[in-house]
Design goal:
Elements (H helix, E strand, L loop, with lengths): L4 H11 L3 E6 L5 E7 L5 E2 L4 H9 L3 E2 L7 E2 L1 H6 L8
Antiparallel strand pairs: 1-2, 2-3, 4-5
Length: 85
Amino acid sequence: MNLSKHEQRVLHVLALGGEIQYSRNGSSKINEIACFSREGHILADCTIEIFQRLKNKKLIRSKNSAPYRITALGASSVKSQMFQR
């Protein structure tokens, strides 16, 4: 699966135990997101557009209104590389 550099970066953070927290406006649309790493740092590369692309490709999902996490398909499609801080 073809993934952009920013999509891969978000998936790497999620694969290492991160999550995407979201908030909704008055309707059911998600209007604000924040991608947190396992250590609690915020990833600035995660935007609404990247979030929507990952969600449409079914690489991330939320269960019972919990924060979004990586799926098995997302974990298998992300390229393995050493995580450099």
